[in-house]
Amino acid sequence: MSAPTSDMPPGTTGASAEHRRRRAPLVLAVSGLAVVAIAVGASLAVATRPIARPAPAAAGAVPPTIATEQGAAEPAAKPESSAAPAAAGAATLALEDGDHDAYITKVDGAKDRIVVDVVQVFHDGAAARAAIADGKSASDARYLTTWVRNENPRLRILPLAGDLEVKLRDACGEDDPGREALLTRLATNASLDGTYYYTLTVRDGAVERIQERLAVNAC
What we know:
The chain has about 220 residues and is of the alpha+beta class. The chain contains four helices and nine strands; from the N terminus they run αβββββααββαββ. The termini are far apart.
């Protein structure tokens, strides 16, 4: 019985094995180059990627948090406001030269100044109409001869002139008692709320004359 024969031509098997042995290093080399190329491309992509920067904080925005030693986050301290609180009390507000009607709320003889509240004064028929407009009944307003309207509570500090003249209603015919005594009596009368108002004559920012007047009907 004869031995089986192969359909492949002689020498084919050896040639294929040799060819595979020669291709193996080439495939490995190409694969290595591909891996290197991918790695280089990824590195370039990371290196050239733009860095995201935080947007500038808007004016008045709360500062970012600051990490404490324990790792917790706390808001950064806000700068304290430099605005000073508004001054309280009467303001030094000048009056233009001329005559002005006002209540006197304080007499400061030691500093030669007064604190005043400027008012509007109406007489006779105008007094009755102003009083009704301000809420007084017609029956109560009809006999009024003087009405004082005080719409603005603003106070003014005014200096007294060196040659100040003070005319008080209850001092008619008296000898001049002196500046200090006059200012003391002026302060007493001015404290009677609603009884008197005063016509102030101002020159160069200082009060040079004070005329006391009744704010109510005379008896």
